[in-house]
Design a protein that fits this description.
The protein is an alpha/beta fold and 230 residues long. The protein has nine helices and seven strands.
Length: 230
């Protein structure tokens, strides 16, 4: 049996994981879309690690073209089913390695998204993948990245193994500074990176106001929403 990291990652993102993900609330992406600069007449959007294309449901009428890319055949099939249910006429899906996909599409996209994805890859994979994503973006195009924040108290507990265990597929949960560093290594200009601390998409959103506590606030910032302009 192939024991490569890629094979292991595919196994983690197949079967029961895909079934579980189908039950995730649409709110995990719905609240992000208003933060994105989208134009229904001009925007070519690439949704990297698109999963079951939850984002498509929110942007189908807000972009000229949506392209979903995922290395999991099961997720791509689920994404196509969603597109069919929506009656989407402007979406395409590719089961592909991200680096390979981007290599044949230099400067193709106005907007790239990587939502709930960066926590699934190690540092070297991160740099390789986001370097490739950057190459697929037009000059002036935007990358939107959404991910858990390692400084959030719950992620701290998972990272330390205190009371909670980290999810097996979450091998790279990071804080804002770590993302800034790796995005810089991937070629993005730090002066053109904006990091926003946003609430969780589930019941944990109610702890977000505690971010104003002196000295403790950073432990209540659950999610990172990062915009990088090429």
């Amino acid at each position: 049996m192939d024991s490569s990291p890629r094979r292991s990652s595919k196994e983690l993102h197949s079967g029961e994981y895909v079934t579980m993900y189908e039950k995730k609330p649409i709110s995990r992406v719905a609240n992000l879309v208003p933060r994105m600069k989208l134009d229904p007449e001009t925007t070519h959007l690439a949704d990297f690690a698109c999963g079951n294309a939850m984002l498509l449901e929110q942007v189908d009428k807000k972009v000229l073209n949506y392209v979903g890319i995922d290395f999991s055949e099961e997720f791509v099939e689920a994404a196509r089913r969603r597109a069919q249910r929506l009656g989407s006429q402007n979406s395409q899906f590719y089961c592909s390695d991200i680096v390979d996909f981007c290599a044949t599409r230099p400067g193709a996209f106005d907007v790239a998204t990587a939502l709930d994805f960066s926590e699934h890859v190690n540092d070297e994979e991160f740099v390789a993948i986001f370097s490739a994503i950057r190459s697929s973006m037009k000059l002036g195009g935007s990358l939107y990245l959404h991910t858990p924040n390692l400084d959030f108290f719950l992620e701290k507990m998972r990272d330390s193994g205190l009371l909670l265990r980290q999810r097996p597929e979450h091998i790279g949960v990071r804080n804002a500074q770590q993302h800034m560093h790796l995005l810089g290594r991937a070629g993005f200009d730090p002066s053109r990176i904006r990091i926003h601390f946003i609430p969780h998409y589930n019941v944990l959103r109610f702890v977000h106001p505690f971010r104003h506590l002196p000295g403790l606030g950073k432990f209540f910032e659950a999610r990172l929403f990062i915009e990088c302009v090429r």
